[in-house]
Specification:
The chain is an all-alpha fold. It has one domain: Catalytic domain of cyclic nucleotide phosphodiesterase 4b2b (Orthogonal Bundle). The protein has a two-stranded antiparallel sheet. The longest helix is centred in the C-terminal third of the chain and has 23 residues. The two termini are about 35 Å apart.
Length: about 350
């Protein structure tokens, strides 16, 4: 079955039929305008899926997290959360004495802030439809947000790690490195009792452990892990220039991180991605597998909490679908035209390209 046929069963049937059978009635005009803008495709590359939050600006995301934290908990902004954003900014901007500035262009500051924003939105949506005894506590929400904020910190090189020239070299172990960082960070901000939990929750964003086997102390923390893992997936695949970033940024990271080849059982080397173009050609099937196996099965389809937050429509899935359909259609055209060998900037879209 071709990818272009399969897409109708992934997001198209679910999202578009869902939106057509459930009228777009929002609580206020402002949110209605946000959704219409999302559907129209008028979105800036450094903004979130609603085109309202600059996800390259730590303060902007921190303010929105603070607003939602209060909406959910009716409590003042948690001081360890505020301190975590301050430390995050110093780390990613190269102002921390123990770390080099982030040098991974795909797994960068924008991606992490986008994931953190998606995490608090998923939590906010979930909390709207549960009774009081099943709600998350303020501490649990804070743990989840802090874990999301530092989920890719393992890519950052320490200043004394002189043997490593680029953060992408840590790709295969970046989650475990992030867990080690979180263990110390939680203690430093006065949340030491949650350090072991945060170290486990971060593994929901990676592949170093089997999701279903990650040890967490309760079903609520497993749900929070599912939410963080979901946010990591939907934020990046819904990115305005996800396709461009896969080709121009993710592939070079894969090369440096040893992700383009693997050894089979017999010890023979298998090439997974011979070029950035091959990675792009395999992206639609990757998106299918992630949606079916990771988002729907492993993470128990908690991406639907976004609909509870945005009053019945999933703005992330809409943007994921746009990326999927666009790339699938162009791959189909290129596959039928044997004279075309590469997927260059003329194929990728919208005159707003990353280089």
């Amino acid at each position: 079955m071709r990818c272009n046929e399969r897409k109708i069963q992934i997001v198209d049937n679910y999202e578009w039929q869902h939106s057509q059978t459930k009228p777009l009635s929002f609580e206020d005009q402002e949110k209605s305008q946000i959704i219409r803008m999302c559907l129209s495709g008028q979105r800036r590359t450094d903004y979130d899926v609603t085109n309202t939050i600059n996800v390259t600006n730590t303060q902007d995301v921190c303010r929105e997290v603070e607003r939602l934290f209060y909406e959910i908990t009716h409590a003042g902004f948690y001081q360890p959360l505020e301190r975590s954003f301050e430390i995050f900014e110093a780390l990613y901007e190269g102002k921390h004495p123990d770390y080099h500035r982030c040098d991974t262009d795909y797994h960068n500051k924008q991606h992490v802030l986008d994931v953190t924003l998606a995490t608090i939105r998923l939590i906010a949506g979930r909390e709207r439809n549960v009774d009081s005894k099943n709600r998350f506590t303020a501490h649990q929400i804070a743990v989840a947000v802090i874990t999301a904020l530092f989920h890719d910190i393992g890519y950052l090189r320490k200043t004394d790690e002189t043997h490593v020239k680029h953060g992408a070299e840590y790709t295969k172990i970046h989650v475990s490195r992030g867990a080690d960082f979180l263990g110390g960070h939680m203690k430093a901000i006065g949340m030491g009792k949650y350090a072991a939990i945060s170290k486990q929750l971060v593994h929901f964003t990676g592949y170093e452990q089997v999701i279903e086997r990650i040890a967490v102390p309760s079903s609520k923390y497993r749900e929070l892990g599912n939410i963080i893992g979901t946010a990591d997936v939907i934020a990046q695949m819904a990115d305005r220039v996800y396709l461009e970033k896969c080709r121009n940024y993710l592939y070079p990271e894969f090369v440096k991180g040893g992700m383009c080849e693997q050894k089979d059982a017999a010890g023979h080397t298998q090439i997974l991605y011979s070029s950035a173009e091959e990675l792009l050609r395999k992206t639609p099937s990757f998106m299918i597998n992630v949606f079916d196996q990771r988002l729907t099965d492993s993470f128990d389809a908690c991406f639907r909490y976004i609909e509870d937050y945005f009053h019945g429509i999933n703005v992330y899935l809409i943007n994921i679908q746009k990326n999927f359909v666009y790339l699938s259609n162009h791959l189909e055209i290129h596959n039928s035209d044997h004279s075309v060998q590469t997927i260059d900037d003329s194929v990728l879209r919208r005159n707003t390209l990353v280089s």
